[in-house]
Amino acid sequence: MDKSLLQKAYSPQDFRKRGHILIDQLADHLDAQINEESTATLDWHIPEDERAFWNDFLENGDENELFAQILKRTTSVHNPKCIGHQVTPTAPITALTAMMSGFLNNGMAIYEMGMAPSAMERIITDLVCKKIGYNSDSRGFLTSGGTLANLTAILSARKAKVQNDIWNEGHEQSLGIMVSEEAHYCVDRAAKIMGLGEKGIIKIPATEDFKMNTSTLESELEKASANNIEVFAIVGSAPSTATGVYDDLTAIANFAQKHDLWFHVDGAHGGAAIFSEKYKYTVAGIDQADSVAIDGHKMMMLPTITTALLFKDGNHSHATFSQKADYLLVQSDDEDWYNKAKRTFECTKTMMSIHWYTMLKTYGEGIFDEYVTQLYDLGKAFGNLVQNEPNFELAIEPNSNIICFRYVDANLNLNTLNDLNANIRQQLLEEGEFYIVQTKLRGVHYLRCTVMNPFTTEEHFRVLLKKVKEKLEAILSPNN
Ligand SMILES: *Cc1c(COP(=O)(O)O)cnc(C)c1O
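Above: the input record for the complex with pyridoxal-5'-phosphate. Below: its predicted structure, written as tokens.
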């Protein structure tokens, strides 16, 4: 049998050569993006054109051009004008650990398939637990994304709070969770996966300023009980995705404690505020949560996907997927924290912990404080700029690095304004210099920015607003 392709694919010389070229390309890219020698955040094509390009490339493209083309035809999260989605410009050193993870490919499900990273995982999750304010009974693990972390936490909640052994026997009663109408859609999805159905998702209305309206919690719980729904958990957002507004975690914690509900904090985006001396007040009360999810790939400069799920009582993290109900009785010195698949949804996962550990070892935890603080400062600065513009308004004064704003004009109706703002965003996308996104809040169309790059400046916001105004003038001018 011909093995020449295998020999080629595993050639150390070839790997070395391509690797050196790629590192140079990425370093040049970083330099050009951070120092803005290259101004574009993306090179927009409609999906069909993009597909045609890559179809053609597969047949006719120059193999040596492949990595350069991928670089050119993706969104540059390292560009300071990339202020759209909540994905971090990775700290470059973690691109190296991502390469190590990809290369070494230790499966992590059991200790033997990832000895160093399993030990590191315990160390870094212990550190995050401590930062949350948990004591030494707490435990955590890393898992593949905020979505999966939230599902896992709600499964843990059901195990801990519902009397019957649902994991083994299923359930006949109606179960429910409480969550703000502003929460990330993945909480709904988790509830549906668990078979709670629409009626099992008790949607708590938000206040004017997009926080969970905690004054309605008692009556919502009474209503659910009257409908024979057994509520076992409540989820708070830290912050919610669309507006970046933090729920009042202390109020939710008090309510949860009073009614013996599990309290989960979805801190996928902003749980990392625990590291910011200036902004940790945003997560006041987080130490009372039974579980907390924090995405490393959002506010901690780590590659996708790198999520920490932390439990105030480590026994619960062990019990979620256990087949035997008496699992909790296992002595803590037999805890086997190092066999991760007992706790995680995944069997195989990537070596996520090496990114966290490398950041801590190289820069210390102060880097997370600098990062979160800088971005939240910038969020506020952008909010102030918008407020000083006569024809612009904010959805809400920024709580974090997420800013929703729009053009307004008293002479135009809502539909016209919605179309105008959507039009502006589409033009920006196609132009490719700035990358921002959009959201609809209570029927109103907003332009939405998330400042993820610590090298974005107020000057960038000024230029962005100027561009938006120029586009508006072009659309609104009478001879158009
Ligand atoms: C991003 C986000 C999620 C989903 O996390 P993934 O890591 O993308 O799966 C969940 N909740 C909130 C509040 C988020 O911002």
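Notes for the reader.
The CA atoms of residues 350 and 440 lie 35 Å apart.
Residues 12-34 form the longest helix (23 residues).
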